[in-house]
Amino acid sequence: MKKTFLHIGLLLLLTGAVKAQDDVYPAKEYKGKLFITNGTIHIGNGQVVENGTIEVENGKIVRVGQNIPVPAGDVKVFSAQGKQVYPGLILPITDLGLKEIANGVRGSNDYRELGDLNPSVRAIAAYNADTRIAGTLRANGILLAGVTPQGGTISGSSSVVQLDAWNYEDAAYKTDNGIHIEMPSFINRPSRFAIMMGAGREQGDATKQALDKVESIKVFFRQAKAYLAESAHKEVNIKFEALKPLFEKKQKLFVHGDQVKQMLAAIDFAKEFGFSVVVVGGSESWQIAPLLQQNEVAVILNDQHALPSTEDDDVDQPYKTPAVLQKAGVLFALNDAHDESRYRNLPFNAGTAATYGLTKEQALQAITLNTARILGVEDKTGSLEAGKDANIIISEGDILDMKTSLVTKAFIQGRDVSLQNKQTQLYERYKYKYGL
Asked: Where would one find the signal peptide in this protein (predicted)?
């Protein structure tokens, strides 16, 4: 009888476990000391500490190095013997939490606003902290993300979130860190559908149209600057008010574009308005890398695993571009914007860059500290240094290598976060079903 009850209890436990798809909860705040010992620690700034220890207290890193004593008493200790320890990876530009089902259910998407000039739109207000995609990102070491709006010419403001939260208020890591604009194309490139339908061939002078559009954006910024210079206003203009942090240099201007002419226009914005400019996309940035460096324009490379921009480029040019930017001294970060992979391949994009000219530590920096600098959160994260948040991942293998990367632990602000997600639960469900 006892054996029967034991079997029934075990069956109920397993059944409950495999059916529960929404039982992954944000980790509770941990107050106290935490030690991660005996690991190979990749600081994120190019340095590596062999057989090192990280001391954390109340969610902040206190010390990193060798021979750090671990006191007796009420402390948590995690051994990373034989494992690799890294800063939490950062996804710089994404619609995570704004788009749940790509090209599918409209009701699950909240990433695009109506209208053309929407600087007052705030992505953080629409962010869904319960997105199931966040769990799969944590399992690949991605602990923070720059949630970004889309649509129109001026899309709105992005915010940095941490990926283990109950709601958007808890998730907010740095709110409204940048304003995003979509630079008009200087090239006529009709869609495949338009070509099939015999349309899109007579579109006028693309360069003239683009320059006219750029000038209209400048006019908008000039009007906003004049408005903000007034001591008092007869009427409040919420669009101009939303640009105040940008003119006060509390925000950066993220200019989305791949073409050289689009990036030259971005440099012009920096010169006229004094904005701190970041190019998002930048597939042709390798052509003007010294100019970008001279004007202190950072780059976020969006689609590294892609075909080259033009027929004349080397077929592997997207793989080589990070090394070109590194050599020129351009501050750059890597991204994964693919809907198909749902952003989880970020570390493997960096692994490709490490195969085509970057060192592994430089490639790691392109998805950690460089990203933190571009997003304006380098004082809190991006590297494993004293005073920063304990955003840490532990992997059994090289985090940049798809074959060996296996994240076994992740900490966000010192909290031991769950690596379970919809896919790991389905894996266990069908293992149980087939007796594996």
From this structure: 1-20
